[in-house]
Amino acid sequence: MLKPKVTATREMVNLDGLWQFDTEPNLGREPWAGRLKTSREAAVPASFNDLFTDAEIRDHVGWVYYQRTVRVPRGWAGERIMIRFESVQHQAAVYLNGDLVGEHTGGYTPFDVDITDRVSAGEEFRLTVGASAELTNETIPPGELTVHEDGRREQKYFHDFYNYGGIARSVWIYSTPQQHISDITVTTDRAGSAGIVNYTVVQTGDAPVKVTLRDESGAVVAEGEGSEGKLTVQDATLWQPGAAYLYELTAELVDGGVLDSYSLNVGIRTVEVRGHEFLINGEPFYFTGFGKHEDTPVRGKGHDSAYLVHDFELIKWIGANSFRTSHYPYAEEVLDYADRQGIVVINETAAVGLNMGVVGGLTGKPPFPTFSEHYANENTQAAHAQHLRELVARDKNHPSVVMWCIANEPASNEDGAHEYFEPLFDMVRELDPTRPLTYAAVMFATPDRDQCSDLADVICLNRYYGWYIFSGQLDKAEQYLRMEIEGWLKKTDKPIMMTEYGADTQPGLHSVWDSPWTEEYQTKYLEMNHRVFDSFPQFVGEQVWNFADFQTGPGIHRVGGNKKGIFTRDRQPKAAAHYLRERWTRAGNAKPTSTEPTD
């Protein structure tokens, strides 16, 4: 799934900006049949929920509609013409001049709509996009939708972040030649000091394929012919965490001239799990960083390049080397930037909420078995598989991505979990045999209860000893955290890392005692966890929950959202940020050692 870009043979026009906007119309009116009769306009990209002051819009359950006119560039006659949606949450219906031309389910992966036979170069068309953020037990992420007798729709969702909706990322109209490159897959390896770049090019037609690899200076370092091949780069410069180096691979279809051309960045690096070690380029790597969210004021989950740059600057300032795309695939621009900045990524699909035990805790509803016809059934599994296929297809070529995370906090402790997840793990290993696989295990999934650890290459734990369990009792929390990790080491010989640990912290709240919610407690909580991590050489990483405070749904257990951020929602540091900076900058990519924080 190639990201659209401008090349010598391709063009694209950005459709971001203000679109006409309306919520689901009154019964009987079809908004896509004509122009929307509304004075409202909504920004694209952005979630629609926080843009307006009308509570009925923010809390709307059902379809919303975006509309604008688009002019096809006059030079595109004879070209293949596509519309690209980077993210429509969570279901999309696309109409061209009133006709349905495309649909997609899955809010965090892109989709294309071919409109070649429906438009003409130089002419305008009316583009209407329907978006629905409704979730059911057969969607990813899952939820529960209730339609009341009066027609009112009520949405419950089983994840602890706000269920934003709308067109969250950019929209493009782009052209390709009729005979074109439709996909490229790149894998890399090393042979001594040489770098190996294996490539596969998928095309329409049968024109000869030429491949050229250039270094960062633009010099050609390897060339190949054919739709599959291996390029060898002598004395290759590797892509390293914190020291990115990117080659440029250009694939061309050549038949008397260049019919199509597409270039992508290539980082030569290897990833391997060996015993208790996670290796990048054959060297032990220790993850330091965060779980994050695509979440900012007003924009919601709308992508924002200014926040992208600033967030990465804060990641580098604090000395972190990685993050997890919790709990869904992030915008492609994020991974492109991680490639260029040398930040390591655990890439996660949107499978969060597959756990009726957690649901019961959040809603008070007595849970039924998670893996059953009532909840995570065969249709859910099929939707989950499609999400994984689209994730791997989109992000397989990013050197920053070193591991796929199949789900966040599933009920891996329940009967039926192994049968649900084993086919998904097998499928992803077949799609991409080069990267390790994992899932982030919920607190219920202790070593004696978890049923899926044999499927994962790395044991990733989300644990909150000292917050949800033994809140304010750090001595007891430390004892039980240590006992659990010892239990995991007895059960498995795989690397172990913490993908979530954190404490809600109200910025500006202080105490001379270890009082929960204070900035002092957040720091003491982290110190306790680190003493435990540092005592186990089998431990390969720590990713704090969360990078920044983020919006959640309504509930008296949250005041203004989740406050576990090391930074506030507007990216101001809490006291713990300075403690982490001292710890992580001292360690680099190696395993830290516990010391008292400096003043």
From TrEMBL:
Residues 271-586 form the Glycoside hydrolase family 2 catalytic domain. Its EC number is 3.2.1.31. Coiled coil: none annotated. Signal peptide: none annotated. Keywords: Glycosidase, Hydrolase. It comes from the Bacteria. Residues 14-177 form the Glycosyl hydrolases family 2 sugar binding domain. Residues 180-269 form the Glycoside hydrolase family 2 immunoglobulin-like beta-sandwich domain. The keyword Hydrolase applies. Gene3D superfamilies: Galactose-binding domain-like (2.60.120.260), Glycosidases (3.20.20.80), Immunoglobulins (2.60.40.10). InterPro entries: Beta-gal/glucu_dom_sf, Galactose-bd-like_sf, GH, Glyco_hydro_2, Glyco_hydro_2_cat, Glyco_hydro_2_CS, Glyco_hydro_2_N, Ig-like_fold. Belongs to the glycosyl hydrolase 2 family. This is Beta-glucuronidase. It comes from Nesterenkonia rhizosphaerae.
